[in-house]
Amino acid sequence: MCPLWSLWSPNLFSNFANTEMLTLLILCICSAAATLHSCPHPNVPENGHIVFDGPSPYAPFTPNTVAKYSCAPGFDKVGGTDERICSPSGSWSGEAPVCAIDVAAGKPAVQSSGNSASSVSRGLCTISDNIQGSWWEVDLLGSYEVHGVSIRLGKQSSHILNIYLIQQNGELRQCDISAYSFVENATVFVICELDRVDKVRVVAESRLHLCEARVFATNAVSSWQCSQSMMDVLGIFEGLCYSASREERADWLGAQRKCLDRGATLPMKMSDISQRGLRAALAASPFQKEFYWIGVSSSLTDWRWADGTTVAEEDADWSNSKILTSNRPEAVVLARLAEWRWIPSAQNVWNSFLCQSKPKSCTFPGVGEAGRVSFSSQTFTIGSFSVYTCEEGYELEGDAERVCEESARWSGDIPRCRKKKCSNVDVWSGGGIVRLLNGTTEYGNEIEYECLSGWKLIGERRRWCQHDGSWSGFAPSCKVVDCERPPSIPNGSVSVALTIYGSVANYTCQDGYRLIGHATVSCGSKGVWEPAIPVCYDIATLRELKTDSAENHAGLAALIVVLGLLLVFAVLRFSRASKSVPICEKPAPPYGAPNVIYAIPSVITNPSDSVVYYAPSAPLTKMELPPHLVSLKPLPSGHFQATMPIGRPLIRPQLPIFAPSPTPSQLLYSFDYEPIYDVPPDVGGKPESPEEENIYEKLPDIRPNL
Asked: Could you tell me which residues belong to the region Disordered (predicted)?
């Protein structure tokens, strides 16, 4: 229920001019408040961060709260929107971005023809020969979860035909590029998602002039996670960080000590993938030196890794054929002149060096919508774990706990939070109708009960699905409508057997009285007797009124001539003076009472008659009539005889335009804002039979513009 209703009291707001308007205002405010929904916590991508521009940084979030996204160092925002807004409907605008790394940077690439020595990742362009179906392909040196590819073409490039994602087993996935337009020197991002991607290929119609190619993956590790701030991180290959010294130089043993001091070692036990990655990264590096020490040294008989294990022949990467050891202490360097392959060097020579290390930490693990996550370590160090829960009304699907592994990646996937569902309500013992107001039985949604016609709802009409998956309150029931005993009438009696929906009651009048209204009423679906209860009138009084009406007709012919002159005089006089003339006294109606007079035809009336009999709805002591109305005479029965001095055919004032009448048998005449009822023209002024009478219901007080 709306909280404003707790303040509602007619006395509290008695100084308002119109309590109905105030009630409507409260209903509008409550309705507007009911339509405003708070938002759950928005989803945050892995490797991402979020801050809120609103009154509270914690869920639930009020409408218009702004969520701003950013990514961890080394990651780029891809797709989605940087800012999302909590809407009044309880949902976040737009889509969350993805935080990904360009895994093609510094990786080896080949193309179908031309010179592929230029590195696209260094901002240089590569161009193929003008051959049909020219292509360029990059080896990612690992399997990645690719989210998209961006490319930039040079001015000599032909039309792009396809972009392929290639998996380790050789299977190709063609990206849908039909919605993209590739123009000269414009970077175009193509959304293309696939797991376990090893290579990416770009195919052109003929010549391919490629100046930029980036492949974005979400499961990559950034150089920031290597925590080697004093060195340049060349890349992460097979889960290990490879960093190059900047201006530092040392002999081989000194280089090893420097690496150990930084939690690393000179590179050793490198696979072919790691060595290919190092060669490509050094070739693309803008800060390359001539030589770099690695963790391979000589013994009397063979070459050994820095940990003392023998280097297998297949693991060696000599620039030429295998080089044998000599009698002097030697170690291996990567040489620029040898295209970054192995060559021996005396250990006492001072060279730059490489360090091999493991990543030190993970990034933010991400959280789904309406989810919450806590950590054993706020720095996300290797071995720490994250625990997931959901907001109230949601349940977790997936692993509740994830671990930061040695690869600097979180185990498993981000779990999802789904709204709890309440039980189905297809069958209702109450016997009526049940509707799902929001289409589902999820948390926060409502159901509405409705009884069949003639039955009354007992209990709450609406129930909502609660946070524990149960429906609020209890199911209502349906009870047959009971109108209770119909009211008795003066000078008459009523007979009724049952008072439930569909039952009928019969009214009769005593001798000497005539029934005005319907003799039979029935119990309606709303619990009231329909139509209106009749009344019993004294027949003698009705005859007297009819006789008086007939006598008035005799002088009408002469009166019309006189009134013609009086009417001209009255109009002129009326235009200068007040628009209404008091005839008799009537006190101002109490506050809130309708300023209305009811008209009940007491006898069968001809449309041309000048006499209509009115029954007031309240004690009448004052009534204002326009000057062209002649008189208003009270009768012993409490009714009033209003003589309308208008000749046949009876001409009534032109009616203003009103909203449609509540019933088809009512007309409201307003003279100077005082409502008076006359015989409705829609029934021709004459019922079909003496037994059929017109019953008039109350109309709202309408102030016309006359």
From this structure: 680-706
Q: Mean pLDDT score of the chain, rounded to an integer?
A: 78
The mean per-residue pLDDT over the stretch 562-590 comes to 46
Is residue 225 classed as helix, strand or coil in its secondary structure?
A: helix
Query: pLDDT tens across 418-456, in order?
Result: 999 998 876 787 778 888 888 888 898 999 999 988 898
**Residue 644 confidence (pLDDT):** 52
Q: What is the pLDDT of residues 631-681, one digit of tens each?
A: 556 666 656 565 654 433 444 444 445 455 444 444 444 333 333 334 344
Taking the domains of the chain in order of start, what are their residue ranges?
Answer: 3-35, 104-217, 228-357, 433-480, 492-533, 542-683
Is 580:614 a contact under the CB 8 Å cutoff? no
Q: Where are the beta strands (DSSP E) in 599-671?
A: 611-614, 622-625, 631-634, 640-643, 668-671
Could you check whether the bond before residue 57 is cis, i.e. omega within 30 degrees of 0? no
Q: Enumerate the H helices of 8-83 as residue ranges.
A: 19-35
DSSP states of 92-156 as a string? Answer: BSS---EEEEETTTT--EEESSSB--S-GGGT--EE--S-TT-EEEEEEEEEEEEEEEEEEE-TT
Q: Which of 210, 214, 211, 183 is nearest to 128 (CA)?
A: 210
- At residue 48, what is the residue type? G
Q: Do domains 228-357 and 433-480 have the same CATH topology?
A: no
Q: What is the pLDDT of residue 182?
A: 93
| pLDDT band at residue 700 using 50, 70 and 90 as cut-offs | very low
Q: Max CA-CA distance within the chain?
A: 153
Match domain 433-480 to its CATH number in 3.40.640.10, 2.10.70.10, 2.40.330.10, 3.10.20.80.
2.10.70.10
The alpha-carbon radius of gyration of the chain (Å, integer) is: 47
Encode pLDDT of 469-487 as tens digits: 899 999 898 999 999 999 9
- pLDDT at position 637, please? 60
Torsions phi, psi for 233 (to 5 deg): -75, 120
Question: Do residues 121 and 106 make contact, with C-beta atoms less than 8 angstroms apart?
Answer: yes
> Percent of the chain at pLDDT above 70?
70
- The per-residue pLDDT for 664 is 45
Residue 41, exposed/middle/buried by CB under 10 A (0-12, 13-18, 19+)? buried
Report helix, strand or coil for 28. helix
Q: What is the CATH number of domain 228-357?
A: 3.10.100.10
Q: DSSP 3-state assignment of 19? A: helix
**Which of 95, 192, 186, 99 is CA-nearest to residue 148?**
192
CATH code for the part of the protein at 104-217: 2.60.120.260
